[in-house]
Specification:
The protein has about 280 residues and is an alpha/beta fold. It has a single domain (about 20-260), classed as 3-Layer(aba) Sandwich (Rossmann fold). The chain is about 30% helix and about 15% strand. Helix 2 crosses helix 3.
C-alpha cells in the first residue's frame, strides 16, 4: 500500500475542539428505501453491506498502523462509483466501526453526495467557500449516528482556486480534531485539476476503479497524478460476482502492495453502480 510519509501529514490532536451542542440538535434522517444507494438502508443488498464492513475493517486496521485522518476518495474518470463508495464507506465506518466520521463533497461543480444520503443541497462546501461562516453551519448530522455530512452546496465555481484551497485547509484545521476520520469525495483526476489540488490537503488517498471498464493505463496515469500522497489502496468497483475470478476476490475492499504482501490470496474488489 505504499509507505506513509509522516512529514507531510497534518493531523490535529487538540481534544478541546468538539461539536457545538446546538449543532447536535439539528439532526437529519437518512432517506432509505428500495432505491437508496446506501446498502444499510436496503433489505436486498446483504452482500454489498458485508463487503463494505470488510472495507471499513481494513481501513481501520491501516489507521492503527499509520497516522492519517483526511482521506481523499477519487477516480480516474467519471462514472467509476467513487461517490457511491464514499457514502457507503462513511456510513459503515460510523455504524460498524464506531468512528466519528465527516464526509465532504468537494466536487462543488458536480456535487452528488447529497443524492446518496437523500439530503438537501442548498448549503454546503460551495456556499462556505463563497461567503465563509462557521463550518458547522454547512454540515448535517445523521440522526442516531456519529456521521456528519457536508454536501457540495449550491453555486459552486467550475474549479477550485488556490484561495479556495487555502480556505478548505483552514476549514479542515478547524474541525479535524472533532473526528476520527474525514473522507473527501473529490472530482475525477483526469477531468479536472481539482482532485490533484485537493490531494494536497489530504493525508492519504483511495482510488476507485470500475472493474472491466477502466483501462489499466488510465488507472496508472491517475495513480501517478497523486503519488505525492500515500495511496492506501485501489477499490475495485462493480466486480461481476458471476465472473470466475470472483472466488479469489472480495466484492469490496482495499487492494495494494501492502495488502498483497500480507495475504496473496486476498486481493480485493468492490461493486456498485453510481458516481
Amino acid at each position: 500500500m505504499g509507505e506513509v510519509n509522516k512529514d507531510i501529514l497534518r493531523i490535529d490532536t487538540d481534544p478541546s475542539v468538539a461539536v457545538p451542542p446546538e449543532f447536535l440538535s439539528r439532526e437529519v434522517l437518512l432517506q432509505g428505501g428500495p432505491e437508496s444507494s446506501l446498502f444499510s438502508q436496503r433489505k436486498d443488498t446483504a452482500l454489498g453491506l458485508e463487503q463494505f464492513r470488510l472495507l471499513q475493517t481494513r481501513l481501520t486496521e491501516l489507521q492503527t498502523q499509520e497516522s492519517f485522518k483526511r482521506v481523499l476518495v477519487t477516480s480516474a474518470v467519471q462514472g467509476e462509483g467513487k461517490t457511491h463508495v464514499t457514502a457507503n464507506l462513511a456510513l459503515t465506518l460510523a455504524t460498524e466501526g464506531s468512528r466519528k466520521v465527516l464526509v465532504i463533497d468537494a466536487d462543488v461543480y458536480n456535487p452528488a453526495l447529497h443524492l446518496a444520503f437523500g439530503l438537501p443541497n442548498d448549503s454546503g462546501l460551495g456556499n462556505w467557500l463563497r461567503v465563509g461562516r462557521e463550518p458547522w453551519k454547512v454540515m448535517s448530522k445523521i440522526k442516531g449516528k456519529d456521521l456528519y455530512v457536508m454536501t457540495g452546496g449550491s453555486g459552486g465555481s467550475k474549479s477550485l482556486s488556490q484561495s479556495n484551497l487555502a480556505s478548505l485547509q483552514s476549514l479542515l484545521d478547524q474541525v479535524s480534531s472533532a473526528f476520527d476520520l474525514i473522507l473527501i469525495d473529490a472530482p475525477p483526476l483526469l477531468t479536472t485539476v481539482d482532485a490533484r489540488l485537493l490531494s494536497t490537503v489530504a493525508d492519504a488517498a483511495l482510488l476507485v476503479v470500475r472493474a472491466g471498464s477502466t483501462p489499466r493505463e488510465v488507472v496508472l496515469k491517475a495513480k501517478q497524478m497523486i503519488e505525492r500522497q500515500p495511496i492506501l489502496g485501489i477499490i475495485l468497483n462493480r466486480l461481476d460476482p458471476t465472473d470466475d475470478c470472483y472466488a479469489l476476490h472480495y466484492q469490496y475492499g482495499i487492494y495494494g502492495e501492502r495488502a498483497r504482501s500480507r495475504d496473496k490470496r486476498k486481493p480485493s474488489a468492490p461493486g456498485s453502480q453510481r458516481k
